[in-house]
Write a structure and sequence with these properties.
Number of strands: 23
CATH class of one domain: Mainly Alpha
Distance between the termini: 129 Å
Shape: elongated
CATH superfamily of one domain: Intergrase catalytic core
CATH topology of one domain: hpI Integrase, Chain A
Structural class: alpha+beta
Strand content: 5-15%
Number of helices: 26
Radius of gyration: 38 Å
Length: about 650
């Protein structure tokens, strides 16, 4: 071998100024390049541990300290080393103050990131050149030679990937980048993560475990595969989330730290909700909600005592729908008392709209209209369960129309008391969409003697539409009953609209108590009498009762109503506007479908039976019968006459 490399020269291989062999020759080489060129000629074999007899267990084999008086085999050597020296222990890092796997460094625990951050970096930087592989101008090795290579291309040359480019996944069969290598096969990222979070009952051993990548019916142990990602907290075979802990242990740790740092009185009151968060069926979803949603910021404020636990305090939170979601969950678990949410929505709208008016008589009149007419009527209907999701929206529109009329009058030096019919007609002719909602205020104000008798056209409500023809309607029903790719809620709701003329607003108020399931029949109560559903609609409805897709999973349970068409917020059904949009995506116009279904039912059944089964009034059922051209209007009288003759 050549003499030692002790003179500084520019290496002919990498182009760097380093201690080189043959520094005075035309081709000086640094130690790395010299070894790379001569390693094959030297024929150096891989290093192996020398063989000796262990001084403790007397086992002969490869040993540490073989040339000393106390050789140790690998097992005994590992027993001498503490766990922190080679695997790390869970502790609070002295630098970043995070609870992670740490190693002792300088008498204090440091996590791997802080250990790497503290290592000195090389001051040498590669010169910039055009890489011969990727043809990009980047810092390159061998920059002063004819074949410069950037760090990425050089790393791929020295450590070629086992799979070149994309490879077919053994689970999904799609050509993708591999995340897990199993011999000559591989598993992609999506399939690997899905399998890590799946549990089966093994067909061989019968135990619950993670399925094998090659055989989904057997667990990893029975298939001879390595069991990866076991939680260090609870020992569960699950996809780890943070610091080698599963999602549930990570979630429990976050909530435990919140309880430890929070106000004791607030934590005691929030305990049912926090327990529901920790025990939710999908901890990964809850962790995403904690990381991304601003609703968790509100939870932290409530837990630390920065914000009072009350409805009024949540009304002051300006964080959009996340506050509504959190309020529904707190009510469901008994942290907050239940209140009329639609009445509260109207109250918030009144507090926002009334300050637009100057203080005076008109402002007092509109406040009285909002309090004693709109809120009183809405609260009464809400107590009786007679409201829909659009009830508060209509009341808010009535209030805003009255405010706009008063503002228009003040701009022209008028008051509501001095308003005349020609002034109202001028406002209506100029008007916006709010002008059609002014009739309730005019009626209430005239009844109280506050304004002169004024008339305005009532808003035109589209009650009927051109009905669907029977062939199209039945084709829609056939698709909903047979297409398994559609959402289960859309399938059941669409059939109830197309077959039983149910309004969307009434469907969303159905709960699981409206559905009765027995061994051979499924019935739903749409009116006074339960209606037996034919198959396969009955089976779909029973499945919807059991599964109820779309429900919130961050804090389930509690005393919330079990809505049949559950929305994402705890204790609330789907939004009516959103649900109408879902049906229209399936080419189902609810009004045309209801008109066709109602006409068909009126032609087949007596009005009294239609009214009892689908929940319409007897007068409405009779009107539909007349439109259908049937002769069932004498059905009730004939039935009463027959019963009277039999009674004699």
């Amino acid at each position: 071998m050549a003499a030692s490399a002790n003179r500084i020269a520019r290496c002919a291989g990498c182009g760097r100024e380093r201690p080189c062999y043959h520094a005075a020759s035309e081709r000086p080489l640094c130690n790395s390049c010299y070894r790379r060129e001569n390693i094959k000629r030297w024929n150096i074999g891989p290093w192996t541990k020398p063989v000796a007899v262990c001084s403790r267990c007397a086992t002969e084999g490869p040993a540490w300290f073989a040339r000393t008086d106390h050789p140790l085999c690998g097992t005994c050597h590992n027993r001498d080393r503490t766990r922190a020296d080679w695997r790390g222990v869970l502790a609070v890092c002295a630098e970043c103050q995070r609870e992670r796997l740490c190693w002792p460094r300088g008498g204090r625990p440091l996590c791997g990131r802080c250990v790497r951050r503290g290592k000195p970096r090389s001051l040498w930087t590669a010169p910039v050149a055009v890489c011969v592989v990727c043809h990009r101008e980047r810092p390159c090795y061998f920059a002063r030679t004819e074949h410069p290579k950037c760090s990425g291309c050089r790393h791929r040359d020295l450590h070629p990937p086992r799979f070149d480019g994309l490879r077919e996944c053994i689970a999904c069969g799609q050509p993708r980048k591999m995340r897990l290598r199993l011999g000559d096969d591989g598993e992609c990222e999506l399939c690997s993560r899905r399998r890590m979070r799946t549990h089966i009952d093994c067909a061989l051993c019968g135990r619950s475990g993670r399925p094998s990548a090659r055989d989904p019916d057997r667990c990893e142990r029975c298939a001879g595969e390595r069991v990866r990602q076991i939680c260090v907290g609870c020992g569960a075979e699950d996809l780890n989330h943070t610091d080698r802990r599963c999602a549930r242990c990570t979630l429990k740790g976050i909530l435990d730290r919140l309880a430890a740092d929070g106000d004791p009185a607030a934590i005691n009151r929030l305990a049912p909700y926090l327990d529901a968060l920790a025990g939710g069926p999908q901890p990964w979803t809850t962790l995403k909600w904690i990381a991304r949603s601003r609703g968790y910021e509100t939870v932290v404020e409530l837990a630390t005592g920065a914000r009072a636990i009350s409805h009024r305090a949540l009304d002051d939170v300006d964080r959009g729908m996340t506050t509504s979601f959190l309020r529904a969950a707190l009510v469901s678990h008994g942290v907050l008392e239940r209140r009329g949410e639609q009445t509260a929505r109207l109250d918030r709208a009144a507090r926002a709209a009334l300050p637009q008016l100057p203080p005076g008589e008109d402002r007092a009149q509109i406040r009285a209209f909002a309090t004693w007419q709109l809120q009183h009527d809405l609260a009464r209907r809400e107590r009786r369960g007679q409201t829909t999701r659009a009830s508060a929206r209509s009341s808010v529109s009535y209030l805003r129309a009255a405010v706009k009329l008063a503002l228009w009058a003040h701009e022209r030096d008028l008051t509501l008391e001095r308003l005349r019919q020609e002034d109202l007609d001028r406002w209506l002719s100029e008007g916006s969409a709010a002008t059609v909602m002014i009739h309730p205020f005019l009626k209430w104000a005239h009844r109280g003697g506050l304004i002169a008798p004024l008339t305005a056209a009532r808003p035109i409500v589209k009650q009927h539409a051109r009905p669907l023809d029977d062939d199209t309607r039945l084709a829609y029903v056939r698709r909903l009953l047979t297409d398994d790719d559609l959402d289960l809620r859309d399938r059941v709701a669409g059939c109830l609209v197309l077959l039983y003329a149910q309004p969307v607003s009434r469907l969303l108020m159905l709960t699981t108590d409206h559905v009765t399931t027995s061994r051979d029949r499924v019935a739903i109560r749409l009116g006074n009498t339960p209606l037996e559903l034919p198959e396969p609609l009955g089976a779909l409805t029973a499945t919807l009762v059991r599964e109820r897709p779309g429900r919130a999973t961050t804090a389930t349970g509690g005393t919330a109503p079990q809505w049949l068409f559950q929305g994402m917020r705890v204790g609330t059904p789907l939004d009516e506007t959103h649900f109408r949009r879902r049906l229209k995506r399936l080419a189902i116009a609810p009004l045309s479908a209801r008109t066709a279904a109602q006409t068909n039912l009126a032609a087949l059944l007596p009005p009294t039976i239609v009214a009892d089964l689908i929940g319409v009034s007897p007068s409405a059922a009779s009107n539909w019968y007349q439109l259908a051209g049937g002769e069932w209007n004498r059905y009730a009288a004939q039935t009463i006459g027959r019963h009277s003759r039999h009674a004699r």
